[in-house]
């Protein structure tokens, strides 16, 4: 941490299978579970399997502070679908004790840079629970707009909840 301006320094890197325990810790917190489609009580083995056999076209990023995993972002592309090669889908979670400290901003900046400067994606899309105001603000900061609402999208904590479909369209793609 930079003590002069209270700004956290995050290292963003690609997730490795050896990060399973750190990713498990991210997705073990009640706020992380509440903000994603993951189920409570994840196992380390589940994450070890997911990270050992990634889906084609997926880019899994990890935010670390002093080698400790504090946030995760997945950018999923469609390399085998010619009509969707210009699109990336984003999913993200921040460890409960690191929320609202800049990890989400660091991960989103890395994902947008990867999409724009290396993958030539002209559309990024995501879904976010309508009651997750902090996440909606973060995504809007990166140029995402609400395209619509999916009602009763998921079952969470004993009730159905809505999500916003949000997207960011890059102007003048190469």
Lateral strand order in the biggest sheet: 1-2-3-4-5-7-6
Shape estimate = globular
Major sheet details: 7 strands, mixed
Percent helix: 25-40%
Question: What's the count of strands?
Answer: 7
CATH fold label of the domain at 11-126: Aminopeptidase
What is the helix/strand order? Answer: EHHHEEEHEHEE
CATH architecture assignment name of the domain at 11-126: 3-Layer(aba) Sandwich
User: Which class of the domain at 11-126 in CATH terms?
Assistant: Alpha Beta
What class would the helix/strand composition place it in? alpha+beta
How far do the termini sit from each other?
A: 37 Å
Number of helices: 5
Could you describe the 3D structure shown?
- By secondary structure, this protein is α+β, with helices and mostly antiparallel strands.
- It has a domain at 11-126: 3-Layer(aba) Sandwich (Aminopeptidase), CATH 3.40.630.30.
- Helix content is 26%, strand content 34%.
- The protein is built from 5 helices and 7 strands.
- It has helices at residues 20-26, 30-35, 44-52, 103-117, 133-141, and strands spanning 11-14, 58-65, 68-77, 87-94, 123-129, 145-156, 159-169.
- Strands 1-2-3-4-5-7-6 form a 7-stranded mixed β-sheet, sandwiched between helices.
- Strand 6 (145-156) and strand 7 (159-169) form a beta hairpin.
- The radius of gyration is 16 Å and the shape is globular.
């Amino acid at each position: 941490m930079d003590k002069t301006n209270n700004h956290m320094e995050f290292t963003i890197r690609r997730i490795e299978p050896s990060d399973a325990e750190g990713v498990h810790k991210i997705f073990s917190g009640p706020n992380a579970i509440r903000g994603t489609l993951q189920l409570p009580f994840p196992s380390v083995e589940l994450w070890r399997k997911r990270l050992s056999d990634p889906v084609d076209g997926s880019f899994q990023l990890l935010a670390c502070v002093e080698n400790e995993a504090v946030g995760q972002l997945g950018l999923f592309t469609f390399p085998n679908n010619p009509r969707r090669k210009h699109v990336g889908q984003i999913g993200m979670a921040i460890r409960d004790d690191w929320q609202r400290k800049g990890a989400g901003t660091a991960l989103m900046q890395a994902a947008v840079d990867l999409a724009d400067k290396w993958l030539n994606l002209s559309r990024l899309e995501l879904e976010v629970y309508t009651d997750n105001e902090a996440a909606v603000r973060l995504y809007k900061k990166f140029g995402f707009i609400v395209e619509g609402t999916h009602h009763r999208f998921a079952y969470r904590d004993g009730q159905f909840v809505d999500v916003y479909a949000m997207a960011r369209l890059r102007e003048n793609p190469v």
